[in-house]
């Protein structure tokens, strides 16, 4: 039997009359790197929030690392982590204090050494002792990624992980995440609007539109299926409902 990091079945989320996620089902094998794609308002952040146990689904089931997320999320939460530009770290605490507080919350052993490891790996030294509220957007993103890696998660959920990074730092960060994934065997699910990033990092993509899963597959397979040269063009076809015109 295949070992899944994520098994999602019939997942929906309604906010009053707004249907943010509408009957989404997918599985992600352990060790895969998968992208959640979709235009603004497609339901990516809502889906990630449900996978993290931050939002309760209106219906459907989620199994994370084999555990039912609604009934047993406390069993599985120590084994995953996330970063999101929409979740701020406490502003008055320095980056080091933030990492230390979160490290204690996650019960990270040898915490000082782990923060030191991440400081070196993610090159945080220059701003580690500054208040997070005073950091640039890109520096905050790096601290948020360090926070997400503190407990060496088996499942890493990343919402636009490189959105505020300059192209050089973004490229380096992608390399770091790929190395982490290879060394640890972790599974990564990332929401991104950067198609080049997705083509470089991801084994598979899940495409959401209006809360529904409208397509999925390996980036190269989708590019071939749509008769396009890049994933960016596939994305535009899906966003603009051009699939029928491009398919034989
Ligand atoms: N708490 C809420 N109350 C009402 N509607 C909500 C709430 N959260 C999300 N929505 C709506 O649900 C839909 C999906 O939003 P979501 O944030 O998941 O989209 P997204 O794919 O992450 O978009 P983006 O790329 O713009 O970040 C949107 O129409 C949004 O307005």
Automatic annotation (TrEMBL):
Stretches assigned to the ABC transporter domain: 6-235
InterPro entries reported in the protein's UniProt record: AAA+_ATPase, ABC_transporter-like_ATP-bd, ABC_transporter-like_CS, ABC_transporter_ATP-binding, P-loop_NTPase
Record SMART domains: AAA
Alphabetical UniProt keywords: ATP-binding, Nodulation, Nucleotide-binding, Transport
Domain of life: Bacteria
An annotated Gene Ontology molecular function: ATP binding
Pfam family, one: ABC_tran
Protein name, entry field: ABC transporter ATP-binding protein
Source taxonomy: Bacteria, Pseudomonadati, Pseudomonadota, Alphaproteobacteria, Rhodospirillales
């Amino acid at each position: 039997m295949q070992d899944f990091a994520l098994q999602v079945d019939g997942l929906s989320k309604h906010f009053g009359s707004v249907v943010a996620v509408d009957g989404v089902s997918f599985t992600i094998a352990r060790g895969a790197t998968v992208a959640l794609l979709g235009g603004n308002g497609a339901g990516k952040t809502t889906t990630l929030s449900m996978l993290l146990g931050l939002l309760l689904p209106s219906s459907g089931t989620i199994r994370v690392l084999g555990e039912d997320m609604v009934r047993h999320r406390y069993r599985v939460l120590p084994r995953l982590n996330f970063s999101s530009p929409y979740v701020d770290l406490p502003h008055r605490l320095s980056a080091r204090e933030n990492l230390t507080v979160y490290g204690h919350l996650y019960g990270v052993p040898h915490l000082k050494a782990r923060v030191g490891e991440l400081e070196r790996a993610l090159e945080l030294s220059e701003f580690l002792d500054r208040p997070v509220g005073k950091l640039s957007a890109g520096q905050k993103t790096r601290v948020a990624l360090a926070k997400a890696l503190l407990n060496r998660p088996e499942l890493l959920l990343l919402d636009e992980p490189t959105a505020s990074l300059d192209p050089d730092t973004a490229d380096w960060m992608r390399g770091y995440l790929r190395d982490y994934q290879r060394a640890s065997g972790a599974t990564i699910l990332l929401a991104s609007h950067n198609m080049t990033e997705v083509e470089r990092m991801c084994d598979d993509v899940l495409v959401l539109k209006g809360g529904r899963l409208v397509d999925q597959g390996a980036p190269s397979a989708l590019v071939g299926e749509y008769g396009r040269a890049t994933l960016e063009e596939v994305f535009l076809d899906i966003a603009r409902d051009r699939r029928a015109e491009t398919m034989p």
